[in-house]
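User: For a benchmark we're assembling, each entry needs the component sequences followed by a predicted structure for the full assembly. Here are entry 17's components. Please fill in the structure.
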Amino acid sequence: MTLTFNKESFRGDYSYHNSPAAIRRFPFPFDRDEYMYSVNMEPHKGGRDGSVFQRRFDVDEHYVAEMEDRAITLARDPMRCQSLPHMRLAGWDLLELIMVSKSEDYPDLFQLTRDGDRWRWVNKPLGIDDTFTFLDDATLPHGPMEYITRQTQGDFAVLDQREGNLWMDAGMITSQADWSLDFDIGMNFFEWHAPVPRAAEMGIFQRALKFLMNVQVDTPARRLNWTMTVNPRLDTSPETYPEWGPEKRSLTPDNIGEKQYLRVELQTFWRLPRSNGLAFPIRCYLCSLQDIVTVPKWGRRLHRVIRDLPDDLATYKGFLVNKPLIVDYLARFDDGAPTSPGIWPD
Amino acid sequence: MQSLKLTRKEPLSPRITRFRFEHPEGAPLPIFAGGAHVMVQMQDGAVLRRNAYSLISDPADRSGYEIAVQREDQGRGGSRWMHEQAQPGMVMTIGAPVNLFALNLTAKRHLLIAGGVGITPFLAQVRDLGRIGAPYELHHAIRSAAEAVPLPDGARLHVSDQGSRMDLDAILSGQPLGTHLYVCGSDRMIRAVLDAARGLGWPADALHSEEFLAPAPGEPFAVHCARSHKTLTVGAHQSLLEALEAAGIDAPWLCRGGACGQCETDVIACDGTIDHHDHWLDPDEQAHKIMPCVSRFRGQLLTIDR
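Assistant: Structure for entry 17:
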């Protein structure tokens, strides 16, 4: 497999773009023509060849640019990466999980050589060749979680499991759908989900927590979540709202296909063996509406989903103001034909 | 579940034997955190037994998993089978490590109190504590010298018939704030330790215990599985979970000891009384749920959603 990494930006001139192959492998999140919350978990044990589900930590054409964007965000706001003192071991767990997975899944790009506790890590796309001592923080330029997540696409919440609950005690969060690690750090599962409408009454969180606390080392799980973002911007955080919030008002019928993005999170869940913590990577994929509708099934279905979405969910997801524009645009690509079940293109 | 080879079997005490399992081709095994257990599957004649045993080996040592099994002559037969039938060279089916008794890593200090064979999870945990440099104290309380097993350096042994009975109040009242207490042993011992700690004002969040329940025997009973349209009889020495499995009805499980919550099952109708033996259901849930791994029923017919 040969990957070419895009030269692109997620801010300023927003030169982010998807190749035709990237569009085809976009994780379209709707398996039917309507949407409601569910604990839509499935085992994270591979998937279709070429899909984002195939490998444990997907690496795609946006890898290098995403890591550059993360470095910019961290330079402006170091609090996007935090780890409470008791999460040190979980950080090493995460480093080990990612290094082992990536070196096995992408041997052309990443190499890990282990001689006892002496480890050598080669990351070819980012030009990194480091040797360090496992479990010795002083031998790395950053803490273990920060070190490895500066080299891995997606946000990472690292959760401690204790007192029958999960706790947001560490994380690297620079590409979030409008939530703040600095605000949520130290919260438990129910506390950090408190803003989500409807789901608590539906008993979703009790069931989800029970499921997550029973994720085992050999049974990682995954689900998809989604929202809408104007412009291909990774850093849609509360901290930078003044920068991106006003952009929501920049949509017109003429530019919406190009500027409105469907933002999909591939969320995976991993038991960390040494700390008994839970790693929760949240990988963000962005696809413009004009690229989505190149897959006719997706164009039809997205129109029906957004058209019928209750307003409180559109408000929570932050696009109620643009919902009529989005529906009008997508209606042009919905001829009323039936759609096939499942998320895949026909 | 994975197939592992039993490579060593050696006595630690007259009743406790250590078993070591390795990958048949020598491949490294997954790392675990101290406090984890594995499910050991035993084909005992026509009966398939699954017993949970805490891992006692160094969690970071991927060359093998070790467990310690105490022979229970009055038990259901799993420990007897391990002592009598399991022999080095055999390939056995062992589950992946599952941890329901993990250390709380926010603790400033860890106080580990074991009764008898309850020492097992702590043997692995002290390796983790040593590795992360966390302060800890390990106490092992036994009735007589015959129950003694080799202990890690620094552990305190209390032998009640030699007059060195564990002085719980002294141990529990001398701990600094931020200490977490872990206790593993018999039901009676766990209750005594937790009661003493509560009496001294320990916060509930700092108290941790693990007791593996074996399914208690009882009178046979009838159960109707509404979703599968099957009616079964659960034998006197069989658990409801085992009866479901024998009838080909799938129920999820992890610990088979009333602690993990995986096999929780809705009760649709109950013409009789459920004997709840688990540590999972809240009192208000007991009216409409049952844990088939350890709980039983007395009465005419129990109807469950399986």
